[in-house]
Amino acid sequence: MAGEPSLGVLLFIAYRAMENRAFDAVVAAGRDDITMAQAKLLQRVNEEGSRLGELAESAQVTKQTAGYLVDQLEAAGYVERRPDPNDARARLVCLTDHACSIRPVADAAVAEVEAEWAAHLGGRRMAQLREALARLREIADPSAK
C-alpha cells in the first residue's frame, strides 16, 4: 500500500531493535570498549575463523574498513589473526575467549526480545513468522545452501 513501509523496511526495523538491545546489554555488562561497528563485524566471525574478505562481504563494508575494524578488535583482545590451515598465504580472523564471553550476554538479550515479540504477537504468529523467515532464507541467503 502507498505510504506504508516496505517489507524490507519492516524487517530492518525489527532487526535493528533486536541488535540495539543486544549491544546495549553487552555495554551494560561492562564491555564498553567495543563500538557498534566493531560488534557488527565481530558477530560475523565464524567459529573456525573467517578471512578478512569474507568478513567485509558479510558486513557489506570495504576490505579496508573490515581491516581497520579487525585491527581495533585485535588491539582490544576480541580477535586474533592466525594462519589459515587450508592456505599458507592466508590468515584467519579468530574469536578469542574474551569475545566468546560476550555471546551469552547478547544471546540472553536476543531471547528476551523474542519472548517480548512472542507475547505481543502470540505463540502461533511468532512460530509462523519464524517459519516464514526460515523459508525465505532458503532463497535469500547464499550461505544457507
Automatic annotation (TrEMBL):
Listed name of the protein: MarR family winged helix-turn-helix transcriptional regulator
Domain HTH marR-type span(s) in chain numbering: 4-138
SUPFAM superfamilies xrefs: Winged helix' DNA-binding domain
Lineage: Bacteria, Bacillati, Actinomycetota, Actinomycetes, Streptosporangiales
